[in-house]
Structures are given as C-alpha cells and as structure tokens.
Specification:
Strand order of the largest sheet: 1-2-3-4-5-6
Radius of gyration: 16 Å
Order of helices and strands: EEEHEHHEHHEEEEEEHEE
CATH superfamily: Ribonuclease Z/Hydroxyacylglutathione hydrolase-like
CATH topology: Metallo-beta-lactamase, Chain A
Largest sheet: 6 strands, mixed
Number of helices: 6
Structural class: alpha/beta
Number of strands: 13
Distance between the termini: 40 Å
Length: about 230
C-alpha cells in the first residue's frame, strides 16, 4: 500500500507556566488524517485544543499522538487529547514509566528527592495526566501501518527513551535532542547522558535529513548544525 506524502506540518508554539519559555507541538497532516507530535503542558491545554480545531482536526481525525520523550512539557496533555480525540498514544518503552508514574526522573539518575517532588507541581502534572501508552515504539519501527511514512529512531541522550521521527521526505522531529533557542541550532546542552547524545547525533549524520523540528525553538535546516 502506498502511504500518502505529508501535505502539511504546522508548528504549535505553546507557553510554559509563568511565561518561563515555550515548547513545540507539531501537527502533521496527510490524506490519512492527522498526527500530533508532543502535546505541551496542561496550562496550554485550551490553546492546543483551539489550534487543533482551527486546523480542522476533529475527534476521530487524529491517528496518533507521538511523544518524543517523557518530560511533562511534552506529555502534559497526552491523556486528555487521547480521550478527547479518540487517538492512541505512542512512545518509546524507555520513557513510558515517566508518563505512567508521573515521574520525570523515572529513568534518570537524580539524587534530590525534593526536585523529584517539586517538578510535577511546577509542570502541573497531576493524577489525571498519568496514563499508559497504547503503543510502545522501538528503534527502527515504521509508522506506515498507522498512515505515516516515517521511521522511529531511538536517540538517547536527553533521556534513554527519547526518539526522533524521520519522515520519508527528510523531516526530523527531534524532541529535545537538539534545541534552537540560542544564537544557532545545537545539540541540547541539557543531557542526562552526554556520550549517548553525541552518539545519537553521529548516527543521524548518516541519514538523509532536510529540516529539523525541535521541541524548543523554530524549525531549522539540518545543515545549520554544521555551521
């Protein structure tokens, strides 16, 4: 079966609490329907909903909610959107415990129990936001059977279960592996495993990538990482 090419990629810039910063969701559209990559935080729920409505994404049209990793600023609205739009949540098994337990440090080595307790409060991630993913993705998985011509790449560094989603046309949704919030795009300095992050970057260099869609900052051309 021939998978339809992507017709539209719409970045959705969502605020973090206290106007601290912003985080990106991306709505991908093709003839099969819509695919939402990351969901922002609970404080931006209404904005996300209104944007989906404005883009003509109605309940039943959303095929997958793809989470690039388990941080609350990316997963905060996943459970709500799943119920509202009757869609499935997909993420890597390595970060699934973050969403299920409401613990951003579930697979990270953090010594401060105070930080572990405070993070859900800051990110407004409560019991209603905890949920179990419907699909557990693995490195190399194809999303073709769900209607999206793209491949899942496990790219650890920011977290062990971080993934990139690479489409056949060279669009890379990278979560927090790269950021574009400073003077130029870069490997995200917030790494829990720097060596793994560098290795993920080196692996991506061997692939055909055109445009990168980061979790923070505007999209950029892949070659900008080499300048």
């Amino acid at each position: 079966m021939e998978i339809p090419m992507i017709q539209q990629i719409t970045p959705i810039r969502l605020p973090l609490p206290f106007k601290f910063s912003n985080v990106n969701s991306y709505l991908v559209r093709n003839d099969q329907g819509f695919f939402l990559i990351d969901t922002g935080m609970t404080n931006a729920r209404r904005q996300l909903e209104m944007t989906l409505e404005h883009l003509c994404c109605s309940p039943g049209d959303l095929k997958l909610i793809l989470l690039t990793h388990g941080d609350f600023d990316h997963t905060g609205n996943a459970a709500y959107i799943r119920e509202k739009f009757n869609a499935q949540i997909a993420m890597h098994a390595g970060d699934a415990g973050m969403l299920e337990n409401g613990d951003m440090f579930w697979n990270r080595k953090v010594k401060s129990s105070l930080i572990v307790k405070l993070m859900p409060l800051f990110f407004r991630f409560g019991a209603k936001e905890k949920c179990t993913p419907d699909l557990l993705l693995a490195d190399g998985d194809s999303l073709a059977k769900y209607g999206l011509d793209a491949q899942v790449l496990n790219t650890p560094g920011h977290s062990s279960g971080s993934i990139c989603i690479l489409t056949a046309s060279g669009d890379l949704f990278c979560g927090d592996l790269f950021s574009n919030t400073s003077h130029k795009p870069e490997l995200n300095p917030m790494m829990y495993d720097t060596e793994a992050g560098i290795a993920s970057f080196e692996r991506l260099k061997t692939l055909s990538i055109q445009t990168v869609y980061p979790g923070h900052g505007p999209p950029f051309l892949w070659k900008a990482l080499y300048n």
